[in-house]
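Fold this sequence, please.
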Amino acid sequence: MDKAQQNLEILEQYFRDGCKLNCVQKLGLEIEHFLVREDTLEAVPYSGKQGIESLLEELAPLYPRQYREGGRLLGLYNNDYALSLEPAGQLEVSIVPKENLRTIQRIYESFLRQIRPLLARRRWRLVTLGYQPKSRAEELSLIPKRRYEYMDAYFKGSGTCGRNMMRGTAATQVSIDYCSEEDFLRKYRAAYLLMPALKLLTDNTPVFEGRPCEGHLTRTGIWNRVDPARCGMIPGTFRSGFGFRAYGEYLWHLPLIFLPSPEGGVYTGSRTTAELFQDRLLTTGDIEHILSMTFLDVRLKHYLEIRGADSMPFGYVMAYLALIKGIFFHREVLEKLLAQYPVKEEDIRLAEASLAEKGFDGTIYGQKAASFLRELLELAESRLDDNEGICLLPFRQNVSRQATEKF
């Protein structure tokens, strides 16, 4: 067996190893924030006495673990969550997967109690939007992380919005477990089926490059113009035979941009995994790097990441978590949706385009958006207890007014 076939088997086995045999369902959460000046809403830079680095250094004694690159502090960790930075200093809070929504809420609130006094002293604010509220991409510097330097160079030639994506956007991501290849496929396809609806419900980008936005799903529009090789959806997702092997084959042909090294990395540009690993076998570390270089709307690791939502206030994040739990934790719900809407990739693109242009006046698979969303929320609520079902209220209100509230 040649190296290519061995590596494809290694990739496939990596995903099989991610199956949770006990099938205890948990939700992981990542929410990105902008740090801005209270008076002007301009982005706070990473460096300097009044920069984000100084904030992290002040927080560092409260965290048992930290991450530095070149001596610069870029991440803090405790047993409940991690703080890390996106390319232009967007502050990401990654909460360890939990079964209970209220536990996630308590963890996030503990983070806020800790950081708010430090922000108040600096006259900074945490802002949850899909795009920078005031600063333009060209005004923002990257944090001192070699990975982002390589990505920035590569995206200049792969599309038109790489600079905007890296410096200007912020998202909310939810991760869920899969218990088998069949369970993965059911959840993966259902996530893409629902992606246009999820994007509309979480649409929270009223400003782009300092000016009011026209239309809807602005952050999605930015991502669609970054790099088609690693964004959006894998061709063939809804074809017979798609599974772990097909996902591995997609990764095998992915341009990797760079490879990590003890010195910080080696730029590889458009050379693919196949070219770079034609003479050696993949390690777990190699696979984790490869996975980090794809930005699909739904990303497979040892869990599934649902990545389509804008950053938004935490009340809406709780609504989003409740919706994901009510839908994706129940096999019969997923099977019902997939049977009711036997979509193809083009159907999903058409639904997204309709919502981007018309919002709640658009259509999803031939159905009015508001009607589709009401049915989806009712389906989710029927599978949640009262304590969690009430979390859906912000989404129900938006559907009722047929407008996504901008924050």
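The first helix runs from residue 3 to 17. Residues 362 and 368 are 6 Å apart (CA to CA).
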